[in-house]
């Protein structure tokens, strides 16, 4: 059986994700789709809207055949590390290709951009360094350097677009890993990455959907944007967890941790650099809500996303020392599979170079213990009754055809 891979968060799974999974299989000619999915915390430094098992079941109910977890160390990292961990896992799982959605819509511009940045790496890095010295953020410095190198030229990928940026990092990761996995892309359609919901547009942004939920929209009112299986599963989790998850729900625990640790201790956590620990501590003392806290900390140099990643690491206890010790994925954590997915994994077992883990109790080493710690802290913030789920939830198996 032939497999293609996709890198996802499904926060939540909507019609755009349904389209992506179907087109990935069509474009690659694959028999199954394997999704490597972030667990309880996401790349933009946020707790997931719904837990990883709910999001896994959404995916398996709507066209994905295997869901594996992207370990915390990669799921919450900057784009290049996020991409590297994901591509390594898809390669280890035996995927012959990976497919991402992009604003660009064709693969050739990405390959041309990769060639340019590979041959002009020294100049590119120097421009980035010079721009950071002016006080701008790292993402802005990257963009400025890229625009300088491509000025007056055509045929390169537009790396100001969020999905294009991630897509480029996937391709770059495969190149650096010398992976035979083939890159593919499909045109992103419908709403933009951060767009609000728009009547008559069936493919909405995940951001727009989350905002609608938190602003009080009923799930049934959002049915034009979500597969019926997603509506059903979200209704279930909403009832069980008394709502969905965002930073405000986690803020009391986060604030307690920040105030208990103090500024000096905060500096030992991953990505907490340049003295920002003092500002974080002061903001926690003065802020009753998460939004008020963020407003006191964010700046041109420290973007909201960068700060949220720091806060995620403070919340989970992920230290600089741990981050330096984790280099590569050490296992494949299986979250769920369909009947076709099970058949594929059974046929590939001997060829897969990493152990396939189906129980939290089998996770060992720094990476495994970090994944357990992050997940149990997430579950604790939701409610004590949920804490045991990390150890007692087996991989989800959907043996029948998907419910789209």
TrEMBL record:
List keywords of the entry alphabetically. Answer: ATP-binding, Cytoplasm, Ligase, Nucleotide-binding, RNA-binding, Transferase, tRNA processing, tRNA-binding
Q: Which InterPro entries match?
A: Rossmann-like_a/b/a_fold, tRNA(Met)_cyd_acetate_ligase
Instruction: Provide the GO MF annotations for this entry.
Output: ATP binding; ligase activity, forming carbon-nitrogen bonds; transferase activity; tRNA binding
Q: What class of enzyme is it?
A: ligase
Specify which residues bind ATP according to the UniProt entry for this protein. Answer: 7-20, 101, 163, 188-189
The enzyme's E.C. designation: 6.3.4.-
An example GO biological process term is:
tRNA modification
Query: What reaction does this enzyme carry out catalytically?
Result: cytidine(34) in elongator tRNA(Met) + acetate + ATP = N(4)-acetylcytidine(34) in elongator tRNA(Met) + AMP + diphosphate
**A GO term from the CC aspect:** cytoplasm
Q: Where in the cell is it found?
A: Cytoplasm
Family matches, as PANTHER family: TRNA(MET) CYTIDINE ACETATE LIGASE
**Primary role:** Catalyzes the formation of N(4)-acetylcytidine (ac(4)C) at the wobble position of elongator tRNA(Met), using acetate and ATP as substrates. First activates an acetate ion to form acetyladenylate (Ac-AMP) and then transfers the acetyl group to tRNA to form ac(4)C34.
According to its UniProt record, which protein family does this protein belong to?
Belongs to the TmcAL family.
What's this protein's name?
tRNA(Met) cytidine acetate ligase
What is the source species? Answer: Planococcus maritimus
Q: Which gene encodes it?
A: tmcAL
């Amino acid at each position: 059986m032939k497999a293609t891979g996709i890198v996802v968060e499904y926060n939540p799974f909507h019609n755009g994700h349904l389209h992506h999974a179907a087109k990935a299989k069509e474009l690659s000619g694959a028999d199954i789709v394997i999704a490597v999915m972030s667990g309880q915390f996401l790349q933009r430094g946020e707790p997931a809207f719904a837990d990883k098992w709910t999001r896994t079941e959404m995916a398996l109910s709507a066209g994905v055949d295997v869901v594996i977890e992207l370990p915390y160390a990669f799921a919450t990292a900057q784009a290049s590390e996020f991409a590297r961990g994901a591509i390594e896992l898809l390669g280890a799982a035996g995927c012959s290709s990976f497919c991402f959605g992009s604003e660009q819509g064709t693969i050739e511009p990405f390959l041309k951009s990769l060639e340019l940045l590979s041959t002009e790496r020294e100049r590119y890095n120097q421009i980035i360094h010079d721009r950071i010295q002016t006080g701008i953020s790292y993402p802005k410095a990257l963009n400025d350097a890229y625009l300088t190198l491509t000025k007056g030229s055509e045929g390169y990928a537009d790396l100001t677009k969020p999905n294009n940026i991630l897509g480029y990092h996937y391709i770059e990761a495969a190149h650096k890993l010398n992976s035979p996995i083939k890159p593919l892309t499909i045109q992103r359609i419908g709403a933009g990455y951060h767009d609000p919901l728009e009547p008559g547009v069936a493919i909405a942004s995940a951001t727009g959907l989350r905002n609608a939920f938190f602003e009080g929209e009923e799930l049934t009112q959002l049915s034009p944007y979500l597969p019926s299986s997603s509506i059903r599963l979200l209704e279930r989790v909403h009832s069980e967890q008394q709502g969905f998850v965002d930073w405000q729900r986690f803020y009391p625990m986060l604030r307690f941790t920040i105030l208990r640790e103090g500024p000096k201790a905060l500096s030992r956590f991953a990505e907490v650099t340049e003295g920002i620990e003092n500002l974080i501590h002061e903001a926690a003392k003065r802020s009753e809500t998460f939004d008020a806290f963020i407003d006191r900390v964010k700046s041109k140099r420290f973007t909201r996303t960068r700060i949220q990643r720091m806060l995620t690491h403070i919340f989970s206890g992920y230290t600089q020392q741990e981050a330096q010790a984790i280099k590569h994925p050490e296992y494949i954590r299986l979250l769920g599979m369909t009947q076709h997915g099970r058949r594929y994994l059974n046929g590939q077992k001997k060829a897969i170079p990493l152990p396939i883990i189906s129980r939290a109790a089998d996770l060992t080493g720094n990476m495994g213990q970090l994944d357990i710690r992050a997940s149990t802290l997430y579950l604790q913030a939701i409610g004590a009754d949920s804490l045991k789920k990390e150890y007692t939830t087996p991989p989800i198996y959907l043996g029948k055809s998907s419910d789209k």
